Amino acid sequence: MDYLDYYSLKEHPFSNVVDNRFYYKGTQHSEALVRLKYAIDTKKGLAVVIGDIGTGKTTLARRLLEELDESVYEAVLLVVIHSAVSADWLLKKLAIQLGVSDVKDDKVELLSQIYRRLYELGEQGKAAVVIIDEVQMLKSKEIMEEFRGLLNMEMPEGKMVNFIFVGLPDLDSVLSLDEPLKQRVAVRVRLRALSEENTKDYVTHRMHVAGCPKNPFTDSAIKAIFQYSSGVPRLINTICDNALLDGYLFKANAIDEAIIRAVAVDLGLNGEEKK
Question: What predicted TM-score, i.e. pTM, was given to this entire model?
Answer without folding.
Answer: 0.91
